[in-house]
Amino acid sequence: MKRSRFTPSTCLLPIALVLPMLALAAKPGAADASQAAQKTNGKTPFVLICGTGVSPHYETIVDQLMDSLAESKVSAKNTDQHEFGRSTCVEKAKEAGAGSLLYVAINVSEKLAYETTVSLQCVTVD
Predict the structure, then answer these.
(1) What is the pLDDT of residue 56?
(2) Which residues pair with 20 in a beta bridge?
(3) Distance between CA atoms of 118 and 32, rounded to whole angstroms?
(4) Cβ contacts of residue 28 below 8 Å, gap of 6+?
(5) pLDDT at 40 over 90
(6) What is the pLDDT of residue 45?
(7) What pLDDT was estimated at residue 32?
């Protein structure tokens, strides 16, 4: 199987697949019981973007995600650092009161001409 190299445009396809899920998860009309409880407590549900990756690749991709989410009117926040495992990100999302977590993992291979792979996972925080 041939792997393609990362360019900002190749990242848009996975983003285009994830954004509708995030939009549904963050909209109060599609909220489950825990999100409805957050709304009644005066908090607006938001998506927390957290993950791991190499600078500057991680920051570039997260900036693109934040811009895309803002265009879709989805409230999103980013963590200050980017060296977190999934379980740590879930805990951070719970502490922050996020409705959803978008976990971003960026891997840059030095052996394959600096090929960059992006993994996006969206989960509801309970």
Answers:
(1) 87
(2) none
(3) 29
(4) 35, 36, 39, 44, 45
(5) no
(6) 84
(7) 47
CA distance 9 to 26: 25
Tokens 């922050």 locate to 96
Cβ proximity of 98 and 69 under 8 Å: no
Q: State the pLDDT confidence band at 71, using cuts at 50, 70 and 90.
A: very high
Instruction: Collapse the DSSP code of 68 into the 3-class scheme (helix H, G, I; strand E, B; otherwise coil) and give the result.
Output: helix
* Mean pLDDT value across residues 82-90: 91
Tokens of 65: 């995600």
Single-letter amino acid, residue 23: A
Per DSSP, 27 falls in state S
Q: How far is CA 90 from the centre of its chain?
A: 12
Residue 92 CA to residue 75 CA, distance in Å, equals 17
d(CA 14, CA 118): 8
Statement: residue 19 has pLDDT above 80: no
End-to-end CA distance of the chain: 37
**CA 109 – CA 126 distance, rounded (Å):** 34
